[in-house]
Specification:
Blueprint: E1 6-10, H1 23-29, E2 34-37, H2 48-61, E3 64-69, H3 89-106, E4 110-112, H4 124-143, E5 148-152, H5 165-179, E6 184-189, H6 190-195, H7 200-207, E7 211-216, H8 232-241, E8 247-250
Parallel strand pairs: 1-2, 1-8, 2-3, 3-4, 4-5, 5-6, 6-7, 7-8
Helix pairs in contact: 1-2, 3-4, 4-5
Length: 273
């Protein structure tokens, strides 16, 4: 893999054999200096003690928290974000305050906002209008912490409307025009894009300047690189060629053990240089 890129471990996917608060230290022991998480709490607004314990786990492990998702609802039940859901808008706004506060404490500079599924109770236009307002509010709050908000295309959720790179960038451009926000970026998850039939090489070439973060998993299976058919080495090389120097998040389900799933990446390439 390209030596110009650096890696961060998504601890909501990896080290799941361990309790959540033990995963940052496990990532450090495996040679990584950076981790990212989905939303690591059961509640949209967790207790202060829960937040303090999470922050301490990251700090004590000696790793950076490079990315954190806003609360996305019950992912196990099929929910995929709160941004465009009128019934959950207050929850999203409350969660933004918590996420940004954690980011300030840990120096986190990327917050991922999952768009939310289409609802039968509202028109697509109504949901999109709300999403624009909520993303603008999240971007404003994130800017105060020197951070960006990410918009991700996703697979595996038929009612999730942001499926391709073009879809995600269209959302970003819409919010920029409406609000003037300039700190919203595209999260290019190469697994999701590939599964959804997007041309990853073309997307990188066209939207490279919009990409704020990259996540990887092989296709099919969503396992570690080398277990499927996706030419991740070429994809990452393409990213470097368009000027991407950000992080690459390892967001996959190990095909064997977590430790063995890192065999594709030499230990000397795992830490930040």
């Amino acid at each position: 893999m390209d030596s110009k890129l650096q890696y961060t471990v998504n601890c909501s996917f990896l080290f799941t054999e361990l309790p959540m608060l033990e995963r940052p230290a496990a990532a450090k022991a495996a040679g990584f200096d950076a981790v990212e998480f989905g939303w690591p709490f059961p509640d949209v607004v967790p207790a202060d003690s829960e937040v303090d314990a999470f922050v301490a786990a990251v700090e004590n492990a000696g790793v950076r928290l490079t990315g954190l998702n806003f609360a996305a609802g019950d992912m196990g039940a099929g929910e995929r974000g709160l941004v465009s859901l009128p019934a959950r808008s207050k929850d999203f706004r409350s969660n933004v305050e918590v996420v940004v506060a954690i980011g300030r404490r840990l120096g986190t500079r990327m917050f991922n906002a999952l768009y939310g599924n289409r609802s039968d109770e509202y028109t697509a236009a109504e949901q999109d209008e709300l999403a624009d307002v909520n993303l603008a509010a999240a971007a404003h709050a994130a800017a105060g912490a020197g951070a960006v908000v990410l918009v991700e295309a996703m697979s595996g959720a038929p009612r999730y409307p942001v499926r391709t790179a073009a879809d995600a960038v269209a959302v970003i451009e819409r919010v920029e025009i409406a609000s003037g926000a300039r700190n919203i970026r595209f999260l290019a998850d190469l697994y999701h894009l590939t599964v959804n039939g997007d041309d990853v090489g073309a997307a990188i070439a066209r939207y490279g300047s919009r990409i704020g973060h990259v996540q990887i998993a092989d296709v099919p299976g969503r396992h570690e690189p080398g277990t499927g058919d996706l030419d991740l080495e070429k994809c990452l090389s393409d990213l470097v060629n368009v000027g991407y120097r950000g992080l690459v998040g390892l967001e996959y389900t190990p095909s064997t053990s977590t430790e063995e799933s890192f065999d594709w990446l030499p230990r000397e390439a795992r830490g930040h240089r």
